[in-house]
Amino acid sequence: MDSSPPPISDRSSAPPRLRIDWNLGSQGGIGPGCSMPRVEDGLPHLRMLAQAGFAGVQGGDPALCRSLGLGVTGGFRVNRPEEAEPQARACAAAGLDAATLHLGWGHESEAEADALIRAVLDASQRHGIHLAIETHRATITQDSWRTVEFTRRFPGIRFNADYSHWYCGLEMPYGDFEAKLRYLQPVFARVSHGHARIASSSQIQIPLDQPAAERAIVHFQRMWTLTMTAWKEQARPGHILPVAVELLGPDNNYALRRQQPDGTWVEAGDRWRDALRHAEILRGCWAAAA
């Protein structure tokens, strides 16, 4: 039987806790209309994030983050089994708390997908670094049925949950949503890291003041509360559940844009305001988790 990655932990006797992080990919393309404070990159920016309530950073400089008491995680892609080893070694050498990864392109056979998962679990154990496989489009986890099947063959697998990809890509609200949540329980029980982004059934990222957000927020609250409940049931003193708010920009077609009267295009929402709202939602889910 496969082994789980080492836990994400501060090795203390403190109660298990949620850590809300900021994914630095969320900086991309921020322009007019965004209320994010304008500060220099590096330490001033990290201080601003800490003052806003973020306790960690994904993609940040480990030394700078540690100097401010911020946690730090990384991320990478693995397309072939032999790529897992050097990536895990580099993450461990950098002193990261954990790393998330996109695994494969989604067209792999079962044997090929299993080889990728096995390589990630082995590399994680060998280098003592927690590796969480992301639920993401264009990877082996793009299909929720197949992902549940992975949990049967690899009970030790751990996921970085980005539910926006399934909620939009698989149109989760179409049909019996509660039945889908019951089916996904084996995945919820193996989430060790998260990316927070609220989607609609047809858009991967929506401003939270849009009409479609009302129902979507309720659905994401359900998914995150179930996830956090399952995590709490297994957690031990010192364990940490990092969830990075990841609201990406218009350059990669995540943030919606609207045209101004002068013909220019600006974002339809305020990503910073929405990021802080995502953090509030996550804290509410944590409090509600049994």
Describe what this molecule looks like in 3D.
This protein has 290 residues and is α/β, with parallel strands linked by helices. It is 38% helix and 17% strand. It has a single domain, classed as TIM Barrel, CATH 3.20.20. The protein has 10 helices and 10 strands. An 8-stranded parallel β-barrel has the order 1-2-3-4-5-6-7-8, surrounded by 5 helices. The protein has a two-stranded antiparallel ribbon with strand order 9-10. Helix 3 (84-93) runs parallel beside helix 4 (110-127) and helix 9 packs across helix 10 (271-288). It is globular, with a radius of gyration of 18 Å. It starts with 16 loop residues before the first strand and ends with a helix.
Question: What are the key terms here?
Answer:
290 residues, alpha/beta, 10 strands, globular, 17% strand, TIM Barrel, 8-stranded parallel barrel
Q: The biggest beta sheet, please?
A: 8 strands, parallel, barrel
Quaternary arrangement of the chains shown? single chain
- The geometry reads as globular
CATH class: Alpha Beta
Would you count the extended β strands for me? 10
Counted up, domains total 1
Computed over alpha carbons, the radius of gyration is 18 Å
User: What is the third-level CATH name, the topology?
Assistant: TIM Barrel
Structural class determined from secondary elements: alpha/beta
CATH superfamily: Divalent-metal-dependent TIM barrel enzymes
Which CATH architecture is right?
A: Alpha-Beta Barrel
Beta strand % = 15-25%
Order of helices and strands: EHEHEHEHEHEHHHEHEEEH
Distance between the termini: 29 Å
Mean pLDDT over the residues: 96
Uncertain stretches of 5 or more adjacent residues: none
